[in-house]
Amino acid sequence: MDVFFDTFFNFQFMADHFDVVWQGFIVTLKLSVVGGIAALIWGLILAVLRQLPGKWLAPVRWIVIAYIDCLRGIPLLLVILLLSSGLAIMATEGAIPKEIGIPQWFGESDPFWYGVFALTLTYGAYMAEVYRAGIEAVPRGQTEAARSLGMSHGQAMRFVIIPQAVRKVIPPLLNDYIALMKDTALVSVIGLVEAVQAGRDLYSEFYNPSGYTLGAFFFLIVTIPLARFVDRLIKKQNEKFQRGMP
Amino acid sequence: MSDKNSTTMVREVAKGETILTVSGLKKTYGKLEVLRDIDLNIKKGEVICVLGPSGSGKSTMLRCLNLLELPTAGKIELKGEVVFDGGKPKNLDELRRETGMVFQSFNLFPNMTAKGNVSIAQIRVRGRKKSEADKRSIEQLSKVGLDEKVDEYPDRLSGGQQQRVAIARALAMDPEIMLFDEVTSALDPELVKGVLDVMRGLADSGMTMICVTHEIGFAREVADRVIFMDEGYIVEEGSPDQVIGDPREERTRQFLGLVLDH
């Protein structure tokens, strides 16, 4: 039993190296907030583009559908590797400006920003599908009422459909957000020291995995309340639905 | 009820003059012919009730009039301007601005209060200031007897109240023509009267109205003209006394027999 605790729950070890893992977790938080917000916005843009009406905009819809299909079908790890190496090479070859190819905006490292890009591209595709489900769940009569009042397609979407759709899909969006937060760990492969990589560094130096356990604690402190919050939202929505309300 | 802010539709139509003309209107879904050949001439101030069995095409006709459904063929003219003549609609925005529509299922926007529902299109489509739109919304809502409900959300209102908000919402746009699509069919019986009273008042005020309805009593009392439709055709039209009281066509008689005999 002592071995077990010394291995996984060595509190002395955790206390000694708390700061290393904590600094890593702050990077995790930053990455998930910046990448998460960007993915939420990018996903909504994709969903709206996918719903554009008319014959002439069909190519736009096809491109968006192809994009969503591809990004949902590729491992995030691959997107991270492709993006970081690709942008870096393009920038050193002079094909794109260095500020974009090797971004170090707001004092954050280029692996951080590659991580933001990759998370946005991939999770934007996931979230676009969630938004789409929400848009399609708004009754047709809502669009008809808006159009019969003289609103354009864009106005109907902006003032009537999207506000209702977003409200409906907040729980699944938050679930995607939790998944995104955990997937930030993948950005460690291109050299970003976030919570998981901090644990690895400690492990290779001291041959003790308690740093991982500490990282796991940090994740759970955020993800469990979020999951509970999602459950409460769903329960509230169901109650509303059962009372026969839209 | 013409709009002072609207400069696009300059032409004014006097009461009794033709405001809406429909000719050769057809609508097919694949092989299904919903509207076969509809001709209709509507005068300003006229109240028309459209009767007919379900599936007769009456709702589809109504929805074609403001181009919520695109007709397969035919011509629609509003105030002498062609708004549809096959292919793409012309002056669609003007058409929608000049026609108000009320639906069977209310279709209030659940994310806005009663006042918000009535104001939103005034602000976004008519370009009124929010304060002005809200003032008009409160006026319209009190006209339909809902002065105390302006700040309620639709889910706190009864079906009858929701439908009256929907009527106020359409009226706030100052339309020339109001289209009513079975607006009492989804209501509990005790709530029907309140909505019909509002429509009665509107008819008395001189509004041009086209009402698809199953309320034969209402049609008889309020309509200037009754249209009976079946299988995509106008089978019979005339004064309510004639069409409902003394129908010429066998199919009309059959339908009225079934509706009135219970």
Could you characterize the architecture of this molecule?
The complex is a heterodimer of chains A (246) and B (262). Chain A has 246 residues and is mainly alpha-helical. Chain A has a single domain, classed as MetI-like fold. Helix content of chain A is 80%, strand content 0%. Chain A has 11 helices and no strands. Chain A has helices spanning 2-8, 11-16, 18-50, 58-73, 76-92, 98-101, 110-137, 140-148, 153-183, 195-206, 210-242. In chain A, α3 (18-50) runs antiparallel to α9, α3 (18-50) packs antiparallel against α10 (195-206) and α7 (110-137) crosses α9. Chain A is flat and about 70 Å long. Chain B has 262 residues and is of the alpha/beta class. Helix content of chain B is 35%, strand content 25%. Chain B contains 9 helices and 10 strands. Chain B has a 6-stranded mixed sheet, with helices on both faces. Chain B has a 4-stranded antiparallel sheet with strand order 2-1-4-5, covered by helices on one side. In chain B, α6 (189-204) links the parallel β7 and β8 (208-212). In chain B, α3 (114-124) runs parallel beside α5 (159-171) and α4 (130-143) crosses α5 (159-171). Chain B is globular and about 55 Å long. Chain A binds chain B through residues 139, 141-142, 144-152, 155, 159-160, 163-164, 167, 240, 243, 245-246, and chain B through 66, 68, 93, 96-97, 99-101, 103, 105, 107-111, 120-121, 124-126, 154-155, 166, 169-170, 173.
Please render the helix and strand layout as text.
The complex is a heterodimer of chains A (246) and B (262).
Chain A: H1 2-8, H2 11-16, H3 18-50, H4 58-73, H5 76-92, H6 98-101, H7 110-137, H8 140-148, H9 153-183, H10 195-206, H11 210-242
Helix pairs in contact in A: 3-4, 3-7, 3-9, 3-10, 3-11, 4-7, 5-7, 7-9, 8-9, 9-11, 10-11
Chain B: E1 18-29, E2 32-43, E3 47-51, H1 58-65, E4 73-78, E5 81-84, H2 92-98, E6 99-102, H3 114-124, H4 130-143, H5 159-171, E7 177-181, H6 189-204, E8 208-212, H7 216-222, E9 225-230, E10 233-238, H8 240-245, H9 250-260
Helix pairs in contact in B: 3-4, 3-5, 4-5, 5-6
